[in-house]
Amino acid sequence: MSTFTFPVRVYWEDTDAGGVVFYANYLRFFERARTEWLRAAGVEQQRLRDDTGAMFVVAEVQTRYLAPACLDDLLQVTVRVEEQGAASMVIVQEAFRGDMLLAKGRIRIGCVHAENLRPCRIPARVVNALVGSSNN
Fold first, then answer.
1. E strand map for 19-73
2. Confidence of residue 41 (pLDDT cuts 50, 70, 90)
3. Taking the model in full, what pTM does it have?
4. Which of 63, 91, 99, 129 can pair with 41 through a Cys bridge, CB separation 3.0 to 4.6 Å?
5. Which of these is catalytic: 16, 50, 51, 72?
């Protein structure tokens, strides 16, 4: 599948007392990019939940921090599916400032029933949308 890229500007609220992006905020940047990646593929998460009862949850995160981002930096956050199973996906995400890699994450997201949070298959329309978006 292809790589999706989403721009993220670093705001004052994203930084810590040292003036750099607080480490946990990269997870917020990654989440934002995944949401927009799904939206760009035609998958709106609230509609998915309303129509199918399915929703995505984060099951596991590994993050490596390589260089700091600072106030007003414009980052490019990428999304790429590394593995896709019946009920989960492993997504690799990276945050760049220009050509410099700042942070890299490997996130496993699972598909669950909204009512009981038990695993369920990723709806076929989502799989089809994501496969279709990789051809763009």
1. 54-65
2. very high
3. 0.92
4. 129
5. 16
